[in-house]
């Protein structure tokens, strides 16, 4: 036996002992085993390879809409925002929440009281904000450096996602608390975001009916994508990319849908 194989043998013995040490007899459960079948974990999906976007529908029967759906997101948006035909009211209250890693994106989850908006007579409140690097929506075929999704829900659970495209340039002070928390995602930090300050100067936007851009690709999601991008510094975008990059679903066919234009009005709430 060479010195090398002796080392391996020793290592194996140590692992065997460790394993044996773990193999404690399992205590007999005293509680009755519930007869309710366990809820199935959703299938693992990713942005690459065998569990990537082209394969999502085949990974889980709950993901069928990813392939069979006809109103999917993201899409390629026209170069110019169509003339506004509606207006969104946005209330500018700050939002408190936690920043964590969802497994697919850096995400801020709102505590519940914060930014709200009224669209088509329905009131939606901010649930969470997350980042994609690069952007998911493209404009005239071109992706932006990143895209923020502000996911809103109304009382009935209908979803509206406000998309904000990001180009590289000056740092966004409003996003600093989110970015700083993204550098130490294991800490459970409470973060306050001034959502109104995150928005671009011009609030003209693209509006269309689409879907979640991640499995299960559920449709009937109202999309509002700001026509003017915001800027973030290369360092800020780099911080998000260090956590998750390439987390962008390819654009989907527009089909029979129409992209319309809209505007938004900010109301400050004191
Ligand atoms: Zn998203």
The CATH topology turns out to be Carbonic Anhydrase II
Major sheet, described briefly? 8 strands, mixed, barrel
Low-confidence stretches: 1-25
Helix content: 10-25%
What letter string, H or E per element, gives the SSE order? HHHEEEEEEEEEEHEHEEEHE
C-alpha Rg (nearest Å): 23 Å
Tally the structural domains: 1
Judged by helices, strands and strand pairing, the structural class is alpha+beta
Hetero compounds: zinc ion
Per CATH, the class reads Alpha Beta
Cα(first) to Cα(last) distance is 79 Å
CATH superfamily: Alpha carbonic anhydrase
The CATH architecture designation is Roll
Number of strands: 15
Enumerate the strands of the largest sheet in spatial order, edge to edge or round the barrel. Answer: 2-5-6-9-10-13-12-15
